[in-house]
Structure formats: C-alpha cells, structure tokens
C-alpha cells in the first residue's frame, strides 16, 4: 500500500490556518480582557474561574489549530502496515 502524499497546496492551507488561529487567539484574549475590565469598572468583580475558563478555552483552541499542520505532517509520514 502506497503512502498518501498530500499536494503542496495542503501545506499552504495549514500554514494559513496556523496564522489565522494565532490571530484569533490574540483577539480572543483581548476580548476576555475587555470583559474583565468592563465588569471590574461596573463594580462586579465576578469569579476568577469565569475568566480563567475563557482564557483556557481560547488558548487550547489556538494550540490545537496551530499544531494541526505538524500533526498532519507527522501522521502523514507514518505508513499503515497492510496485509
């Protein structure tokens, strides 16, 4: 069984995905920071876990999307053992 070799455009798309995921992660952290500042200004400190959850979701989704390219490259180089 021959190993699958993705076309050159796949690397370009995954690189673009990594840059967009990084930009979305920065935007997400800015939005969480703005929400924190607005609630603090209104006098509603809220719970720290709420903001930690937002930061955690943004960071983990950014890490997952950014590492998609290297994961595909690493798993694409593995050959499945056939009969």
How would you portray this structure in words?
The structure is a single chain. By secondary structure, the chain is mainly α. The chain has one domain (8-76). Helix content is 76%, strand content 0%. The chain contains three helices and no strands. Helix 1 (8-42) runs antiparallel to helix 2. The model has no long low-confidence stretch (mean pLDDT 75).
Structure summary:
76% of the residues lie in helices and 0% in strands.
Largest sheet: none
How many β-strands, per DSSP?
A: 0
H/E order of the elements? HHH
Q: Beta-strand level of the residues, as a percent range?
A: under 5%
- Shape, principal axes of CA atoms: elongated
The oligomeric status of these chains comes to single chain
- The unreliable regions are none
Radius of gyration: 19 Å
Task: Name the average pLDDT.
Answer: 75
Class of secondary structure makeup: mainly alpha
Number of helices: 3
**Number of separate structural domains:** 1
Proportion of residues in helical segments: over 70%
| C-alpha termini separation | 9 Å
């Amino acid at each position: 069984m021959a190993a699958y070799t993705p076309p050159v455009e796949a690397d370009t798309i995954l690189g673009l995905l990594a840059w967009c995921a990084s930009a979305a992660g920065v935007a997400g952290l800015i939005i969480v920071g703005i929400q924190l500042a607005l609630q603090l200004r209104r006098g509603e400190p809220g719970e720290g876990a709420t903001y930690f959850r937002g930061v955690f979701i943004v960071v983990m989704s950014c890490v997952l999307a950014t590492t998609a390219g290297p994961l595909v490259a690493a798993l694409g180089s593995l050959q499945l053992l056939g009969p």
